[in-house]
Amino acid sequence: MLLNRSSSGGRWRIRPDGLAKVTGSLAYLTDMTHDQMLYGLVLRSEHPHARILSIHTDKAKQLPGVHAVLTYLDVPGLNAFGIAHPDQPVLCEDFVRYVGDALAAVAAESLAIAQHALELIELEYEILQIVDDPEKALLHDAPKLHPQGNAMHRTSFSRGDPDEGFKQCAHIVEETYVTPRQMHTYMETEGGLFVPGNDGRLTVYSPTQHGFMDRMQLARILSKPQEDIRIVSSPIGGSFGGKDELNVQPYGALLAVKTGRPIKMHNSRQESVRAGLKRHPMKISMKTGVDEKGKLVAHQVNILSDTGPYSTLGAEVLNFATEHVIGPYKYGHLDVKGVSVFTNNGMSGEFRGFGGNQAIFALEGQMDRLAERLGMEPWAFRKLNMRKLEDPGPFDQPIAMTEGAEQVWRAIEKSDLWQERSASNEPESTSSEPWIKTGIGAAFTMHGAGLGVGIPDPAGGRLALAPDGKIEAVFGYEEFGQGLIATLEQMLIEQYGFGPGDIRIIIGDTDIVPDSGSTTASRATAMMWKTLQRLKKPFTEQLLMRAETLLNRSAEELRLSEGGIKGVSHESLLLTYEELAKGNDPPIRCETSFSFPISSTDRVGAHFMYTYSAVAVKVELNALTGRVRVLQQYHAVAAGPVVNPQGYLGQIEGGSSMALGFTLMEDAVMDRGHYITRNLDTYLVPTIVDQQGQVEVEPIEHLPENDEYGPRGIGEVGSVTLAPAIAAAVRQASGKWVTKLPIEPSFLQEEPFFLMKE
Question: Is 463 helix (H, G, I), strand (E, B) or coil?
């Protein structure tokens, strides 16, 4: 069943936040103002690597209209942040390590005054040697960016004896794959409003994917109890991982506390480019061998990841990439090593796919090359080597078993696109335009959900009957465009029987919500589903027991419905939820907390739940210009029940759009530690013109009979498999193997000999 409006019937609903977004009436956090507010700006380093000799702020402080100028001396607590490894200075004291490093923060009565104040701050540097190549950064004579050296994190996983394994191989493929520094390019850049209270508390209205993590980090920086900080973190104008880490929050918070006035901050696009996170550029070298029948024998991988100047989640991204370069296949001998390296390039960090995009581009490229070397159909080669239902995960860890791998493989095999490819294995072209060629390719992945073993991964939520009769669903998640509010509403309607008007959804406010964990890692929908399953029986029983008392009828004769309580055997409304809430009875409220399921292994980062996905794609290649256009996409996704059809389709389509940019056009190019690409006039992302091709999504909802984990996450997987599928299609169209993204048109361009015959 292909996912569309007609196939989903009445389940295709208008999003609760849809009207406000379409009309522009929705107030985002960066839209907020306050009549007493000041404007905050940050002074950032001009140099990618330098020693700070002096910072003089006297002239800036004396400028009329300036209320505060802060340096590292004004940070009362920990002068560092980072979700997992707090090594990024809030305000630099001794060194700057990239052009986004913060040196001072200013609060003034206008942006113009704040900008002038930044210009009056006097700095003296000693310029240091730049480390802008991760390979050279590992050399023994390279400048050390941190006391422990430039190797931020190393990974390894092995099985068997790869050297011996390669001796047994009939065919061996060795290749190196290179991926770009991609920008998140959300429409809403980083910002927020920071409001100090008369009671000493601070309220932070700033986009983030984990309000409680922000609160913890800001408490360390401000040297305040966490309870004295309130984080309001939703709605957000896009994130994709880029706002998971602190950005402007430390500066807005420090300035608000210092001045006692609300502080407004909102990065320009150029500052967002300069200081914001990007996808980790990776260089992945692979050597993979098969026997004469095509069975994988040995697989050797080296991953080199440029994490930039500070850790953020670079170690965790490398862990994920290490797991996924093994992926959905079985090998007799295995040796994977990875290193994430400090450089003076821009900050790398969390990004949709979390290292899986880079890993699968390389891994699927190997599979296609091996199949061709064997003379075997590439999809049949994958079937021969893929993991089966009972097999453990990539790290040999126990996993939640599903038939997802087999299901998506079979869906691609039967798809019209793959049948078309099988019918003709030669590139097509039209006689009138022989330089236009087409090709079809496919790729396959298993993508881990949740944070993995060894990382706290809380979940849970609360349901309550409010005094006005609304059913309140309270979760510590954030809405950043992914449709979380719509998905939660749909689950409450379908699982409990409520109507849209009965429900009040409360998210993203640390003063009110429980800690449901981070809105990341393809985990939120699965955890909301599990929470509602756990709460259904106790919450329903409490509502019906109170109705039993008020109606003098047995609870067994009653049921929940839209608007209130009805009888089991008839449709008339007996009692509204507002009537149920009246009186002096104790509040009806149920809460649950638990953790995202993990594997019973000691391997840090290993996953337990996976989404399986495969995509077939048809491309058109203009051999004169080297430009590639995607004509058709077919995605098969095995993720269990579809909770929200419209949201499901939107996530896969949106993820594939991001993958299109990753594959064909996006790269935040740097030169000696400086961004060449500084704004969206030179950094191009796919537009509706680039996405005119047909996209079909087939959800595979079947799960094993005794599965207790419910729907798997699909927020990331749509962005993972398209790049290698396009590369395979380009191979068929051009005869050239793609090893570097984005695909350079000059690489595919041909000399127009047929135009020069005369």
Answer: strand
How far, in Å, CA of 325 to CA of 327, rounded? Answer: 5
The length of the chain in residues reads 758
Give the strands of the sheet with 282-290, arranged side by side: 151-159, 333-342, 296-308, 282-290, 171-178
CA pseudo-torsion sign 318, 322, 323, 324:
positive
DSSP H stretches of helix in 50-174: 58-62, 111-120, 134-137, 162-167
Q: Are strands 263-266 and 191-196 parallel, antiparallel or unpaired?
A: antiparallel
- Asked whether 233 and 213 are in contact (CB, 8 A), the reply is no
Dist. CA 550–CA 468, nearest whole Å: 17
Which of 636, 728, 254 minimizes the C-alpha distance to 446? 636
The pTM for the full model equals 0.95
- Give the integer Cα–Cα distance in Å for 38 and 68: 10
d(CA 662, CA 677): 15
pLDDT tens digit string along 324-372? 999 999 999 999 999 999 999 999 999 999 999 999 999 999 999 999 9
Phi/psi zone of residue 733: left (φ > 0), alpha (ψ -120 to 50 degrees), beta?
alpha
Helix axes 416-423, 404-414, angle to 10 degrees: 60
Tens-digit pLDDT profile for residues 480-490: 989 999 999 99
Report yes or no: 356 and 282 within 8 Å, Cβ to Cβ: no
User: Distance of CA 731 to CAs 205, 368, 395, 737, Å?
Assistant: 48, 10, 31, 5
- The tokens describing 582, both together, are 């009246």
Q: Are 522 and 714 in contact (CB under 8 A)?
A: yes
Helix H, strand E, coil C: the string for 657-715 is HHHHHHHHCCCCCEECCEECCCCCCCCCCCCCCCCCCEEEEEEECCCCCCCCCCCCCCC
Rounded to 10 deg, the angle between the 645-664 and 722-734 helix axes is 50
Q: What pairs with residue 463 in β-bridges?
A: 473, 590
Q: What are phi and psi of 305, to 5 degrees?
A: -120, 130
Note whether 121 and 55 are within 8 A (CB): yes
